[in-house]
Amino acid sequence: MSKEKRARLELTERKLVEHASQLRAAAPGIGAYKMFVILKAIFLDSMPGRDKFYEIINRNGLMLRPERRRHTTNSNHNYRKYSNLIKGLVLCRPNQLWVADITYIETDEGVVYLHLVTDAWTHEIIGWVLSDSLVASETVAALKIGIAHNEGADLSGLIHHSDRGSQYCSNAYVEMLKSIKASISMTEDYKPTDNAIAERVNGIIKQEWLYRMKRPKDLEEARNIIRGIVEFYNNKRPHMSNGMMTPAQKRKSYVDTAA
To answer: For a Cys staple, 124 with which of 69, 91, 232, 247, CB 3.0–4.6 Å?
Structure first.
């Protein structure tokens, strides 16, 4: 190998490691293959093969460490509970199915709660609120953001799926769903698999980011962190279930096809 070619390869590798380090800092838990897909779009023909890329990032300490697992719990209540409408449902478009869930995040000042609404087809987080409360008004606020995110869209065929938590069965939440003519679907028991997409989003946020970061000091710092995570998750993180497109790209692919 000539000195010139070796120098070019070394320069490319240095730039690759620099970009990979920035990605690892922005998304501490992103997998090596997703990182490869993102960087391949930047380096194009100068991008090494997948195995060589893995070797480079491993040599530079950028491979993932084993994840740390935590668990969430569900609540019980006496509100009306709705049937599960999504068994066997085949997804084919955005705004066909939204899934909602609440998960906790630890801060130095105590636990805060992330209220999420996600489009099941694109896997895009369309509404979120981080609060120190589990009151239904915070969950309704996340739903309102999701509705505003889809302003102008026909939501009359939408199914909203959640667990049977009191927030989702509350009068305010149910009335908000009825106002957009959405059908209401709920899990029939408390197995995480009954709301798998929502649970998966929770897991990605925690396992790829929060568990690999210093614990936030307080609610405000946690809110800023979540804002950055959602931005990266929606617009930069490729999803295998989306054919390695980001949620934003998946939504755009539908809009472009339908136009």
So the answer is: 247
109 plus 228 within the same structural domain? yes
The strand pair at 159-162 and 97-107 is best described as parallel
Q: What is the pTM of this model?
A: 0.76
Evaluate whether residue 88 is within a structural domain.
no
CATH number of residue 163's parent domain:
3.30.420.10
Nearest of 5, 176, 161, 192 to residue 83 by alpha carbon: 161
- Which pair of tokens denotes residue 208? 């790829």
Q: 225 and 118, same structural domain? A: yes
Q: How many domains is the chain built from?
A: 2
Q: Is the domain of 107 the same as that of 40?
A: no
Q: What SS3 class is residue 8?
A: helix
Q: What is the pLDDT of residues 111-144, one digit of tens each?
A: 899 999 999 999 999 999 999 999 999 999 999 9
Question: Cα separation of 233 and 38, whole Å?
Answer: 13
* pLDDT tens figures, 191-207: 667 889 999 999 999 99
Cα 101 to Cα 202: distance, rounded to the nearest angstrom: 8
Q: Are residues 185 and 104 part of one domain?
A: yes
Instruction: State the Cα–Cα distance between residues 208 and 239, nearest whole angstrom.
Output: 13
Same domain, 132 and 27: no
Residue 40 domain boundaries: 3-60
Mean pLDDT, residues 152-173: 93
- The pair of structure tokens assigned to 39 is 């960087």
Residue 87 belongs to a domain: no
Q: Encoding tokens for residue 227?
A: 């804002």
Do 180 and 244 sit in the same domain of this protein?
Answer: yes
CB atoms within 10 A of CB 177: 23
Rounded CA gap, 196 and 71, in Å? 14
Residue type at 177 in one-letter notation: L
